[in-house]
């Protein structure tokens, strides 16, 4: 396995993605991981990430340099390279001009670069983003790549298997980046490419069995990808020792409860308790219009319902959750970042604080796309596993202002028509608009406008359609859906749903708007 020390670059997670794509297991740890822990981790190789810092900036941004004495290969990327140079006797100059974007690197043959560059020109097409650069090599290092503005763009000490690269091989803009990372982890480190889904399932199943023994496990199933895959995996490991609780808060998508019950209880044979708590949620939400209050009420109510079910299961000793690796990294990083809470993103299914259950989180090591791959391997339908995200408070934040059952019923149907048409409409390359968008849904606007249908005048509600394209949901573009698709969705909604006579399309980006309307 490979250890990645994270110095805080925006793209460190991508290094881990690329290493896992080479089927090598890796973990990301903070840069100040103690040497004793690094030794205990026993890595086949270490990768030092980039950083917004400069080696001169902040003495606290330093890893334990004992890592250079462990006899394992080290790859420093950007700041990682500068860190390596700085501590092994080279010299780093504070750049007075930043180099950002595309660059061409002239390479010199080395174990890392041989046969990776474009054959004729010996060049790599790379993506640079740095201010500082290495200006003097440490002892026993040689240059293995250079650009016009950066004479030491790549360096190596082949005897010790230390490599430094100034550009970012982990981003897809660096054409041969994947090949470079594969070369480092597979050939230079000699790491075992055994990180495959079937192997992972076997290991995870054995681990879950060892962990819980004959205890009972309870899991809050939301119908979302993470909790669904966690349920399928745990069920594979311990069968009927797992009980899932599916809470229907009355703010789910059309037929969601039936679909979840069919998929898990009927098809996979998982024990699922279906709690229809919609009455309870609706009455708690009556008269409440403030978005944050609505979120808090739904979250608190969810915990109450879940808690009550848990108490009935007297033997449950474990609470399973679909926590995934980015959640783990995020909450570890959150301690020193000033994350700004614009909306209270509670995850419905969160851990009630007074629960005396141990946590079982079998997806903690996996990235989202690995979770999806695992779900397919466990027999979940592809359509389910590649679904858009759906917020915990559900339609509660898509009905503006007060939530009413009547509104939820209208919205569910409109949303379903929109999603159906997105799934059934394709671009010229044959990709569905559902897959071309990252998240799409309908929003209920509790205002009435005038319309005309047949000979009669109507005075009905408005529905807004929202579709966005984003990679991280932190920023997003509105999706440029074809007019014909929008037209068809609008016609169907207005014709098929009595009570809605107008459909509008949201053309706001994030920022300044958010993806959800509340
Ligand atoms: P915003 O609206 O903040 O949404 O641009 C970003 C992503 O977060 C989801 N979201 C939520 N998820 N509970 C959740 O579990 C929430 O309260 C919540 N609010 C927003 C939203 O669907 C989008 O994917």
UniProtKB/TrEMBL annotation:
Pathway(s): Purine metabolism; GMP biosynthesis; GMP from XMP (L-Gln route): step 1/1
Known role: Catalyzes the synthesis of GMP from XMP.
EC number, as in UniProt: 6.3.5.2
Annotated catalysed reactions: XMP + L-glutamine + ATP + H2O = GMP + L-glutamate + AMP + diphosphate + 2 H(+)
Protein name as it appears in the record: GMP synthase [glutamine-hydrolyzing]
Binding annotation for ATP: 222-228
Pfam families in the record: GATase, GMP_synt_C, NAD_synthase
Subunit-level organization: Homodimer.
PANTHER family assigned: GMP SYNTHASE [GLUTAMINE-HYDROLYZING] (PTHR11922:SF2), GMP SYNTHASE-RELATED (PTHR11922)
Domain of life: Bacteria
Gene name for this UniProt entry: guaA
Record-linked InterPro entries: Class_I_gatase-like, GATASE, GMP_synth_C, GMP_synth_GATase, GMP_synthase, GMPS_ATP_PPase_dom, NAD/GMP_synthase, Rossmann-like_a/b/a_fold
GO cellular component: cytosol
């Amino acid at each position: 396995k490979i250890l990645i020390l994270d110095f805080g670059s925006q793209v460190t997670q991508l290094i881990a993605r690329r290493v896992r794509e080479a089927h090598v297991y890796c973990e990301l740890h903070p840069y100040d991981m103690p040497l004793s822990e690094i030794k205990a981790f026993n890595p086949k190789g270490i990768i030092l990430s980039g950083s917004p810092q400069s080696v001169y900036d902040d003495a606290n941004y330093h890893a334990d340099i004992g890592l250079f004495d462990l006899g394992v290969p080290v790859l420093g990327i950007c700041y990682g390279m500068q860190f390596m140079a700085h501590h092994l006797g080279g010299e780093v100059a504070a750049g007075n001009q930043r180099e950002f974007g595309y660059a061409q690197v002239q390479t010199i043959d080395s174990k890392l670069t041989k046969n990776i560059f474009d054959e004729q020109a010996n060049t790599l097409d790379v993506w640079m983003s740095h201010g500082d650069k290495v200006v003097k090599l440490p002892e026993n290092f040689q240059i293995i790549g250079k650009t016009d503005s950066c004479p030491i763009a790549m360096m190596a000490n082949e005897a010790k298997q230390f490599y430094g690269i100034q550009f970012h091989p982990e981003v897809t803009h660096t054409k041969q980046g994947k090949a470079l990372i594969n070369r480092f982890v597979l050939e230079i480190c000699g790491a075992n490419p055994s990180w495959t889904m079937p192997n992972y399932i076997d290991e995870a199943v054995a681990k879950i069995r060892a962990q819980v023994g004959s205890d009972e496990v309870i899991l809050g199933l939301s119908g979302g990808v993470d909790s669904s895959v966690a349920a399928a995996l745990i069920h594979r490991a311990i069968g009927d020792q797992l009980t899932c609780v599916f809470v229907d808060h009355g703010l789910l998508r059309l037929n969601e409860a039936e679909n979840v019950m069919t998929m898990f209880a009927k098809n996979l044979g998982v024990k699922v308790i279906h709690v229809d708590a919609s009455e309870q949620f609706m009455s708690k939400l009556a008269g409440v219009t403030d978005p944050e209050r609505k979120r808090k009420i739904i979250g608190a109510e969810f915990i109450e319902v879940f808690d009550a079910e848990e108490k009935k299961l007297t033997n449950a000793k474990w609470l399973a959750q679909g926590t995934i690796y980015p959640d783990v990294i995020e909450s570890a990083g959150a301690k020193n970042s000033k994350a700004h809470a614009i909306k209270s993103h509670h995850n419905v299914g969160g851990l009630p604080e007074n629960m005396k259950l141990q946590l079982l989180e079998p997806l903690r090591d996996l990235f989202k796309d690995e979770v999806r791959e695992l779900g397919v391997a466990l027999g979940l339908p592809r359509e389910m596993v590649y679904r858009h995200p759906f917020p915990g408070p559900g339609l509660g934040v898509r009905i503006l202002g007060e939530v009413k059952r009547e509104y939820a019923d209208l919205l569910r149907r409109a949303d379903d028509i929109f999603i159906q048409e997105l799934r059934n409409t394709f671009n010229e390359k044959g990709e569905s608009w559902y897959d071309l968008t990252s998240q799409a849904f309908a929003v209920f606007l509790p205002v009435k406008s005038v319309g005309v249908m047949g000979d009669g005048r109507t005075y009905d509600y408005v529905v807004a359609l929202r579709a966005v394209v984003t990679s991280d949901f932190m920023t997003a573009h509105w999706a440029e859906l074809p007019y014909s698709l929008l037209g068809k969705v609008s016609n169907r909604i207005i014709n098929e749903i009595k009570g809605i006579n107008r459909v509008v399309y949201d053309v706001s980006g994030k920022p300044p708007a958010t993806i959800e309307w509340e």
